Amino acid sequence: MKVLVTGATGFVGAAVARALNAAGMEVRVLVRRDSDLRNLSHLKVEQAYGDLRDRASLRRALSGCSQLYHVAAHYALWAKDPSVFYEVNVTGTRTLLETARELSTGRIVYTSTIGAIGLPAHGGLGTEETPVSLSQMAGDYKRSKYLAEQEVLKLARAGLPVVIVNPSAPVGEGDIKPTPTGQMIVDFMKGRMWAYIDTGMNLVDVDDVAVGHLRAMERGRVGERYILGNRNLSLREIFEILSGLTGVPAPRIKLPWQAVLPLAHVNRWMADYLTHRPPRIPLEGVRMAKYRMHYDCNKAVRELGLPQTPAETALEKAVKWFRAYGYA
């Protein structure tokens, strides 16, 4: 069986492609002419050149495929031109899935984000059913992914056989960009973390996320969302684990997120008008730190059999990979 994976050059997409290789599937990947192909170097895949904004290229890539894993997204906390988030994440997703419907591709797994999942107003764990709205989305990335998810749900209600997965904060091997979570690990390894914000996140091994994608394709209920996560940790707890793995002292100074907000605004202004490069202190990241991004992942464990590799193991894999490839 031939399957198409979009976003296979990225962190999560490459893990999905690896898992599909291991399962003996015939894998085609959608790549751009200028894509960084390092994550594909050891994989057995067929490359199809195209872009989510080019419908004709999507038809060629989907031709002959029986399944689709749509992992690709414009993932960043800043962009010089914010319209790219909506062109790729919203319009591109709708175009791809409509094309898959026209070609009768078969079942589809769409990779959303934990940021599209709501959090209880008075604390507690977010679930797939926690109410959330566009007004609660901080930043263009989260807003675009929320809007994309609404498009996917609309298509599912119209009969498209699509399952949605919402990875939390994946860590592990192959984070070449790196992602914001991976950059945090690299900065810690370089001794740049002199303080921490009292916030938290849900960590998950990226290879478990990949297995979750394959299980969602096999077992997931059409039109349902599944949080692909594992362990809820405070930022201080994450740094303590990293300290044990690296020997780098964990920061002891705790800052309220409001104290970092002015610096983030300055960094954002410099990125927008001076450097035209991503800010070192992302404004949207600081705004998100207002909340503990903690979630209940039992639905995916129960219905999909999502693996639960210990967070310590996942962080150790990330540390070893970043060292091996010269990031820190």
Q: CATH class of the domain at 2-174 and 203-230 and 294-309, please?
A: Alpha Beta
Distance between the termini: 40 Å
Unreliably modeled segments = none
Strand content: 15-25%
Rg computed from alpha carbons, rounded to a whole number of angstroms: 19 Å
Describe the structure.
α1 (11-22) crosses α6, α2 packs across α3 and α3 (83-102) runs parallel beside α4 (139-157). The chain is globular and about 55 Å long. The mean pLDDT is 90. The strands form three sheets. Strands 3-2-1-4-5-6-10 form a seven-stranded parallel β-sheet, sandwiched between helices. It has helices spanning 11-22, 55-62, 83-102, 139-157, 180-189, 206-219, 235-246, 257-275, 283-288, 298-304, 311-324; strands at 2-6, 26-31, 46-49, 67-70, 108-111, 162-167, 169-171, 195-197, 200-205, 225-228, 231-234, 253-255. It has a domain at 2-174 and 203-230 and 294-309: NAD(P)-binding Rossmann-like Domain (Rossmann fold), CATH 3.40.50.720. The chain has 328 residues and is α/β, with parallel strands linked by helices.
